[in-house]
Design brief:
Blueprint lengths: L7 E7 L5 H13 L5 E7 L4 H11 L4 E7 L4 E6 L4
Parallel strand pairs: 1-2
Antiparallel strand pairs: 2-4, 3-4
Length: 84
């Protein structure tokens, strides 16, 4: 799924070595620290569809989600805050 792209990214959040129970809190913390127009690159070892569903449920219309790489071993997603 591709949403409106953001203007810049400030970090890469690689969760491949992070224990699963800690991944979503880490990712949402990174998202919360973004200013409007900023984004980060999420690097994961599987398609983060459940995370996308959680973002949609909790933050509908308040985030952008752009796949940059879609497996099979590495997934990269730009997650950001829109400017409006």
């Amino acid at each position: 799924m591709t949403d409106t792209p953001t203007t810049s990214h400030s970090a890469t959040v690689d969760v491949r070595q992070v224990p699963p129970p800690q991944r979503h809190p880490l990712i949402f913390g990174a998202f919360d620290s973004l200013a409007p127009g900023q984004a980060f690159i999420l690097v994961n070892d599987h398609d983060p569809k459940p995370l996308h569903y959680q973002f949609r449920y909790e933050l509908e219309g308040q985030f952008t989600w752009d796949y940059l790489e879609a497996g099979p071993e590495v997934w990269k997603v730009r997650i950001g805050k829109p400017t409006t």
